[in-house]
Amino acid sequence: MKVFLGLDAFQPVPNPIITTGSFDGVHLGHRTIINRINTLAHQSNGESLLITFDPHPRKVLYPEAAGKDLRLITTLEEKIELLERVGLQNLLVIHFTKEFSELSSVDFIRKILVDKLNAHKVVIGFNHQFGHNREGNFDYLYDLGQFYNFGVEEIPEQDIDNETVSSTKIRQALSSGRIQRANAYLDHFYFIKTTLTHGNVLMNHIHFPSYRLRIDDVTKLVPPIGVYAVSIPYGNELLKGMLNVRAGTESLIPRVDVHLFSEPESLNMQLVNVCFHKRIRDELDFSSPDAMQKQLENDRQIIEDLIY
C-alpha cells in the first residue's frame, strides 16, 4: 500500500476508485467499502484510493466541545496497518485544518477529486456528508459526477444483530469495557500498537513480571480501569496474557501493564500489537501481596480457558 502524507506528496494513480472519511477503527462497515473499491478498481484496471484526515475533524472544528474528550479507536499508525491488511492500494492522509474545513463541497470535488486525483469513480457510505458545513451528500456528488465525468456509488449501512455499525458505537462499547461487542463491530480485535518497556516492580516480586505499554498519543481510546484478557501475535505464536489498566498519575493517559504467560524471549523495547479479548474484572484493592498473587493466579486460569 502506498501512503501519501499530504496532497503535495500525492502521485498519480491509474483510474482511481476513491472513497473518503475518517475510517476510525476500520470497522466492518469500513471494510465493506474498501472491499468494494478494490473490486471496482480491479474491474476498471485502476487502483483503490482512500482519502482520510489527521487529526480527526472534530478535534479541529470543536476543540472545546465534541472534540475535546474524543478518544479514537485507532491511531494513524494503527489505521494504516488495518487498511493495508484489508488490501487498500493507496492512502492519502490530508492534514485537517480550520482552513481546509472551509473548503466548499464543490471545491473539494473540483480541486481535489477531479483536478488533483482525476477520480474515475467515488464510493461513499450511507448518509455520508462532506465539505464546508457538511453540505455535500450523495445526490450532490452524483450530479457533479455527471458534470465532471466520474461515477458515484453509495454503500448501504452494515448491521450486526439489527444494529448499525458505527465508530461512535464502537467507542461507546470500548469505553464501557464491552470488548467482545466492540470486536464484533470491528470484525477484528481492538488492539494497541505499542512499544513494551519494563513494567510494575511489585508484579515481579509476586512472580508475575510485567511490561508497561508505552502510549504516547493522548487521543488513543484505552478501555476503562480493570483487568483484561489479551494476546500478542508474535511470529507464529500467540502469546496470551492479562492486562491491567490503571489511572494515570499526572497524565490523561492511563497506566497499562501486561503480564504474559509465556514468551520466547524478552520483548523489552519491541513494537507489538496487544489484542483485547474480554474484560475480566474490576480493579481490586488487596490486603497483602499474597492476596494479590492468589487473585492473579485465578485470573490467569480464566484467561487460559478463554483464549485457545
Description of the structure:
With 308 residues, the protein is of the alpha/beta class. It has two domains: 2-164, Rossmann fold; 190-306, Beta Barrel (Elongation Factor Tu (Ef-tu), domain 3), CATH 2.40.30. The chain has ten helices and 14 strands. A six-stranded parallel beta sheet has the order 1-4-3-2-5-6, with helices on both faces. It has a six-stranded antiparallel beta barrel with strand order 9-10-13-12-11-14. The chain has a two-stranded antiparallel sheet with strand order 7-8. α7 (167-175) runs antiparallel to α8 (179-186). The mean pLDDT is 91.
Shape: elongated
Task: Tell me the number of structural domains.
Answer: 2
Going by CATH, the architecture of the largest domain would be 3-Layer(aba) Sandwich
Helix content: 25-40%
Q: Poorly predicted ranges (pLDDT <50, ≥5 residues)?
A: none
CATH topology of the largest domain: Rossmann fold
Count of helix runs: 10
Q: Determine Rg (CA atoms, Å).
A: 22 Å
End-to-end separation: 32 Å
Mean pLDDT: 91
The H-level CATH homologous superfamily of the largest domain, spelled out, is HUPs
* Secondary-structure-derived class: alpha/beta
What's the SSE blueprint?
Elements: E1 2-5, E2 17-20, H1 28-43, E3 48-54, H2 57-61, H3 76-85, E4 90-95, H4 98-101, H5 105-116, E5 121-125, H6 138-148, E6 151-155, E7 159-160, E8 163-164, H7 167-175, H8 179-186, E9 191-198, H9 201-205, E10 211-214, E11 226-234, E12 237-246, E13 255-260, E14 271-281, H10 289-306
Parallel strand pairs: 1-4, 2-3, 2-5, 3-4, 5-6
Antiparallel strand pairs: 7-8, 9-10, 9-14, 10-13, 11-12, 11-14, 12-13
Helix pairs in contact: 7-8
